[in-house]
Amino acid sequence: MATTADIRTGLIIKLENSLYSVVEFGQNKTARAAAKVWAKLKGVDNSRTIEHTWNSGDTIYPVRVEKKAFQFLYKDDSGYNFMDNETFEQIALPENMIDAPQFLKDGQEVAISINTETEQHMSVELPDKIVMLVTYSEPGMRGDTATRTLKPATVETGATVMVPLFVEEGEMIRVNAKTGEYIERVK
Fold first, then answer.
1. What are the tens digits of pLDDT across the range 113-135?
2. Domain range summary for the chain, segments of one domain joined by +
3. What pLDDT, in 10s, does the model give residues 81-119?
4. How far lies 150's CA from each of 167, 172, 179, in Å?
5. In the CATH hierarchy, which fold is given to the domain comprising 2-62?
6. Is the pTM of this model over 0.90?
7. In this structure, are strands 172-176 and 129-137 parallel, antiparallel, or unpaired?
8. Which long-range contacts (CB under 8 A, 24 or more apart) does 4-12 make?
9. In the chain, which end has fewer C-beta atoms inside a 10 angstrom radius, N or C?
């Protein structure tokens, strides 16, 4: 069995019959009392975010999770449809399981986390950085590049990203899928 010494960011644990992913954790030590381990947990099978505290050395119940490569196919009434790259099996998942659905492009490869005990699909993760085509952007003012002024730009999936004034329509940009922020232009 695992103990609180095995807690790390990204670990998925079973707590009160629900699955939680460890977002942040730490240890509180005091002079007189035993050390405590705390963790900020995000619900995998629910939308709750909680904080939990254990005594140092307490037993925790990690869940074995496997990540498999899938390809995004299309979105319809049943949800977002993905295809397993190895078996070509297709699955449909709801939007709340995807970390950034506004940046999903047809044919894009994603990683789907699967609970190995129940074979249940838990979450869909996009790559950290995604290259997108700017489909609409207002023209920037000439000479207005001294400050870090941003303007909205629509990318090929319909999402809006704040970009610097020099980015124009038809250019390729790199976007951080986790935060939705502009990173750089792609040549």
1. 898 888 888 888 899 999 999 99
2. 2-62, 65-125, 129-186
3. 999 999 999 999 998 888 889 999 999 999 998 988 888
4. 10, 17, 16
5. SH3 type barrels. (2.30.30)
6. no
7. antiparallel
8. 4/37, 4/54, 4/55, 4/56, 4/57, 4/58, 4/60, 5/56, 5/57, 6/60, 6/62, 7/37, 7/39, 7/60, 11/62, 12/44, 12/62, 12/63, 12/65, 12/113, 12/115, 12/122
9. C
